[in-house]
Amino acid sequence: MNKTKNTAEAILDTAQSIVQDVGFNGFSYAHIAEKVGIRTASIHYHFPNKEDLGEALISRYYRHFISAIAQIDTETHNNLEKLRKFTLLYGGPVQDYCTCLGVMFSTDLATLSGMTREGLAQLFTTNLEWLERVLDQGRSEGHLNFEGSAVVQALQFLASLQGAQLLARTFRDISRFDMIAEGLVSALT
Questions:
Q1: What angle do CA 135, 101, 35 make, to 5 degrees?
Q2: Measured distance CA(119)–CA(59) in Å, rounded
Q3: Cβ-proximal residues to 108 (8 Å cutoff; 6+ apart), any chain
Q4: What Å distances lie between residue 5 and 45, 95, 138, CA to CA?
Q5: Where is coiled-coil annotated (predicted)?
Q6: Which residues lie closer than 8 Å to 138 by C-beta, 6 or more apart?
Q7: Per-domain residue ranges for the chain?
Q8: How far apart are CA 97 and CA 89, in angstroms?
Q9: The CATH number of domain 51-186, selected from 1.10.357.10, 3.40.50.1100, 2.40.10.120, 3.40.50.150
């Protein structure tokens, strides 16, 4: 990997970490430059403005999410287990008392560029479509049991995980996320 690629990735890694902690409007390029150990001009070289950085962040996050759910689909055939693994995706940021990038971007929605908002909508749509498919298949195969439509169940599942992240962060108590995530999965058996 070349130095330019390494620098761009380091910038994105650092920016993502900061956004997941303080939100998109809670930092400047100077904060990233200090953490990465570069000048702000180097950040502007890769991401001319903050909107470009936001678009790159959500695009990369989306690609990683697609890869993660593809891995779940490949490794796991039981839909209940797929949902358990999905909750682990949302549990990752909680370990550092942060939330996922999507949740934090949502709090700054009004100030995001149109492309970043579209990327965020695409991320949530993909989450919901995957959840709906897994829920439908799980009910058809007898692994899952719930009333109503899979669409509504998917919305409730995703909203609950996102809320669980916020509660765990607010109370600085990872067990709150774990209790909610396990309750969501258990309620489907």
A1: 150
A2: 6
A3: 23, 24, 25
A4: 12, 28, 41
A5: none
A6: 79, 80, 82, 83, 144, 188
A7: 51-186
A8: 14
A9: 1.10.357.10
Q: pLDDT (tens digit, 0 to 9) for every residue of the chain, 189 residues total?
A: 466 679 999 999 999 999 999 999 999 999 999 999 999 999 999 999 999 999 999 999 999 999 999 999 999 999 999 999 999 999 999 999 999 999 999 999 999 999 999 999 999 999 999 999 999 999 999 999 999 999 999 999 999 999 999 999 999 999 999 999 999 999 999
Task: Give the C-alpha distances (Å, rounded to integers) separating 160 from 132, 167, 169.
Answer: 15, 10, 14
pTM of the model: 0.94
Length of the chain, in residues: 189
